[in-house]
Design goal:
Strand content: under 5%
Structural class: mainly alpha
Number of strands: 2
Number of helices: 3
Order of helices and strands: HHEEH
Number of domains: 1
Distance between the termini: 19 Å
Helix content: 40-55%
Radius of gyration: 19 Å
């Protein structure tokens, strides 16, 4: 699999639900012809409320992220939902700087 982020079964369920809520919100804004500034203020409050309501039982805060992202999120995928890697494939390359420092790859 080249990009697990596009595989639906590996997607972060919290992000999927938030995206669905946002799409519904945009549809209502268009239907009621709400101005952009007003819609932005409404989503600012509504979006925060929705984000707090959406909880994943496996959520771990990423200490390197200031926006409260999950440590297990990679783009739109949840790495905990991806299949376990069976080992190194023939195209695997270790970055020499990481090897010298003895550190694993970090995004």
């Amino acid at each position: 699999m080249l990009n697990p982020g596009y595989h639906g079964s590996f997607a972060c369920t919290v992000l999927e639900r938030l995206e669905s809520h946002f799409e519904g919100f945009v549809n209502r804004v268009e239907r009621f012809q709400i101005e952009d500034l007003t819609a932005s203020m409404i989503w600012s409050r509504y979006g925060r409320k929705m984000a707090l309501a959406e909880v994943c039982t496996r959520f771990v805060p990423d200490p390197g992220d200031t926006h409260g992202a999950c440590l297990f999120r990679y783009d739109k995928a949840c790495i905990l939902r991806c299949p376990v890697c069976p080992g190194r494939c023939s195209r695997y390359k270790l970055v020499s700087n990481d090897l010298e420092r003895g550190e694993p790859f970090r995004q």
